[in-house]
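2024-03-11 09:14:02 DEBUG pipeline.ingest accepted 1 chain
2024-03-11 09:14:02 DEBUG pipeline.ingest length=336
2024-03-11 09:14:03 DEBUG pipeline.predict start
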Amino acid sequence: MTNVPPTPSSLRGAVDLSSLVDRAQRPPQGPGVPAAAAPSGPAAGAPAVGAPGDGVLSVPSLVMDVTDQSFQDIVQLSTVVPVIVDIWAEWCGPCKQLSPVLERLTEEYAGRIVLAKVDADTNPQLVQAFQAQSIPTVAAVIGGRPLGLFVGALPEAEVRDVFEQVLQAAEQNGIAGRVQVDGAIEADDAEQGEPEPEPLPPHHQAAYDAIEAGDYATAISEYRTAILQDPHDQMAVAGLAQVSLLDRLAGRTADEIRAAAGAGPSDVAAQLAVADLDISGGHVEDAFGRLLDLVPTVFGEDREALRVRLVEYFELIGAEDPRVVAARRRLANALY
């Protein structure tokens, strides 16, 4: 169990990924090198990296999809240029905000940085190697060594600052090469006509700004307004669940929350609070089990409070997560 309540920077835009870490098949096999980088020789499906020519390395793309099996090539490439690693998933709303920013900036840096995209659902070894407890998780590989960067969706200006820091770190390690795409036109030409970054919807942006300022009440209100305008806005639904969790835990210590839950095992409010703490620390099954055990023992408003909180957790974790599927089934059996 975690003993530290979450902060906005650690939770904002992040979706729990603990189950994917648990599915990893083996731990890292060398200090500072992800497990998937251990095998020698090119892997099947690896992105082909050409030999250097005139000091410029040839690559198929500046943005590459990589897997547990093909990551060896990325490790090798990181000895020439720093590689940004984007650990994402198709079902992750914040990933859909962040990934286009990472891709756009990678293209803008015109071969000084390469972006490696890792699908968390299908590459558990890399999830474990980068210790990705939530997504999106962004890291770097410089000279074969991983470097954690940030978790969650950040504004483009902050992401740009991170890129600059990565380049500085690479230069300090003697890595200041450049790559070019096979058959690509010059970077200046490629940048012409790039579309302007798509802004966040107004209420999403307002909620995002409010979270940055620590004003959770305003963020909650903005997300609720977005949902009223579009009940199918899953990014707003997930955002509302996350900021509601932050708001409930604000101003309370983990010790205080756990002490109250231990003193009142049948106290619904106390158990809801400690379930929030469990969720914030990635202990999803503990949170689900705690509340589901209570559902058959209470009625009326207490039972409804448990149901609403569990549904909120389901939105936060993701409908297709197997833990959510099992918990939703168990909740239905308890209610009906």
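2024-03-11 09:14:41 DEBUG pipeline.report DSSP finds 15 helices and nine strands in the chain.
2024-03-11 09:14:41 DEBUG pipeline.predict end
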